[in-house]
């Protein structure tokens, strides 16, 4: 599982260590899970905020880079 966090400043990012401070939401390790979350607005519901497409794009790049 991959942890996506929202920091106190409202930033959204991947938490590769699983220990960063912030509100967390979990997705499976497959980029298809991220695509599904984008389509169904799963992260928006988890974080109770609108998430710009640019954030999803950067998360997708991090997923695809294999740095996990």
Note the main attributes of this structure:
68 residues; alpha+beta; 3 strands; 43% helix; 21% strand
What does this structure look like?
This protein has helices spanning 31-40, 42-47, 53-65, and strands spanning 2-6, 12-15, 23-27. A three-stranded antiparallel sheet has the order 2-1-3. It is an alpha+beta fold and 68 residues long. The mean pLDDT is 89. The chain has a single domain (2-65), classed as YlxR-like (Hypothetical Cytosolic Protein, Chain: A). It starts with a strand and ends with a helix.
Rg from alpha-carbon coordinates? 11 Å
What class do helices, strands and sheet pairing give? alpha+beta
CATH superfamily caption: YlxR-like
The total beta strand count reads 3
Element-level helix/strand string: EEEHHH
State the helical fraction.
40-55%
Largest sheet: 3 strands, antiparallel
Average pLDDT value? 89
CATH architecture: 2-Layer Sandwich
How many helices? Answer: 3
How many angstroms separate the termini? 10 Å
Low-pLDDT residue spans: none
Counted up, domains total 1
Major sheet strand order: 2-1-3
Question: What's the short version?
Answer:
By secondary structure, the protein is α+β, with helices and mostly antiparallel strands.
Helix and strand topology:
Layout: E1 2-6, E2 12-15, E3 23-27, H1 31-40, H2 42-47, H3 53-65
Antiparallel strand pairs: 1-2, 1-3
